[in-house]
Amino acid sequence: MGGRPASGLPRTTSAGSRLRPAKPPASVSPVARGSPRAALGAQEDELWREMVEAEGRGRRRWAENWAFLKDYDPMGNKKEPEQLPEQVPRFSDTVPNCSSQVVGSRLATPLGRALVLMDFAFTEGAHRKKPGAGLQPT
């Protein structure tokens, strides 16, 4: 009951159409299954590898031909290498720092006030506006 037919013929439904073959196990990769999506993924992977290789070639070519420009300013004068400080403080006196790295407790400072004004100016369109006195229902 409910088993395979003894004749060895493929199983069919009552309408006569063939049943779908059993799916391969999930451990089999799409490439091994030969799906078109897997083939597309392999092509995309190959294109990505070629693009990365071309970018590396371009970087090496730039270093050979144009790297000397990084030592000169736009006027052609030789730039002095910038000396980095020995130690950099972790917190700033001018930029507000808080645990979430957003504008925090220093809103009363001139910089904090400027940031609040900029925030208001950039998000003004998202705020609800009261209709004018002429548009109020009576």
Automatic annotation (TrEMBL):
GO cellular component: cilium
Family annotation (Pfam families): LLC1 (PF14945)
Domain of life: Eukaryota
Annotated stretches, region: Disordered: 1-42
PANTHER family in the cross-refs: CHROMOSOME 20 ORF85 FAMILY MEMBER, RIKEN CDNA 2410004P03 GENE
UniProt-recorded name of the protein: Ciliary microtubule inner protein 5
Origin species: Cavia porcellus
